[in-house]
Amino acid sequence: MVLLSVIIPVYNAGNFLSDCFNSLLEQSIKSRKIEIIIINDGSLDNSEQIIEQFRVDLSKDYLVKIYSQNNQGIAKTRNKGLDLASGEYIAFLDSDDMLSTEYFEKILNIIEKNNSIDLIEINAYKFQNINDKKLFQCHFHGSGEILLTNNAKKSSLEALKWFAWSKVIKKAYYIDNYFPEVKSYEDQLLYPLIFIKCKKIWAIQEPLYYYRQNQSSLTHNIKLSHLEDFYGVFKQQLSDLDASNELLILNSFYNLFVYRYLLFEFYPPHQAYASFKEAKRCFFRYINKNKMLFLIKKYKIRKKVILLFFFPYISVIYKYLFFILKNLTR
């Protein structure tokens, strides 16, 4: 029985792929209960050759599936991995990153002893040079088994830590939840929806993942044009949620949208941080005063979002945001 499927999307990762695969071969335990799924998304470099070089060695220790396709983007590639996966739990490994040597040992130990765990959260190291790695805190739940209350879910949604590689999740939660096919941050759109359905998680404090800060990766090349895809998917997701979950998701989206897409992408950090703090103060004053009743009323989605952002005393960037949303939802 396969307990864990590890999905590795590969696109032009030749410079880092050997490090990624070697981290699988150097695990403290190896098992046929672990399935490695490698999907070559139409790479134009030497990625395919490196995959073939490691095929035999990886197959000695794990169940291995290798699939090649024309370039379709990260969301479709991850979704293909989900289609191919036979494990009870799903993990993702980016092709320019690495696993710590104890990753499989720690994860298997948890899921073999407690099958009621819906989601496992891990921390990571981030690095450009492996000799200068720094802790990357991906969750704030302490450690061990945690029953998710609404307050715990709300805190997590506000933390903006929704990386595909930072969570190991029961495959059952992916059955009706695939990655939306947007140009960027598809994991940020999917995982809040999965998270609010989870009842029990397990948090691991020690870093089990090495996240490479690769400046050429997609997440370092976000464009304003990506907003249209992001907002369109978000609007559809919001329309499918009930009022209580809608509140959680909308608040998460608020932080993500302003903090990541506008402020820190287009403004110097000191200006962006000041604007964000002021926006957040205004936001919470507003929802406390109005008790979030506008979420339950049958406003159009566009109006709900505009109500959050369009205050006359916030900086000019929010007027710009209003202009964007107005044009996106015509």
UniProtKB/TrEMBL annotation:
Pfam families recorded: Glycos_transf_2
Annotated transmembrane regions: 305-325
SUPFAM superfamilies: Nucleotide-diphospho-sugar transferases
Residue ranges occupied by any Glycosyltransferase 2-like domain in the UniProt entry: 5-130
Keyword Transcription annotated: no
Keywords: Membrane, Transferase, Transmembrane, Transmembrane helix
Gene3D superfamilies from the UniProt entry: Spore Coat Polysaccharide Biosynthesis Protein SpsA, Chain A
GO molecular function, one term: hexosyltransferase activity
Protein name as annotated: Glycosyltransferase involved in cell wall biogenesis
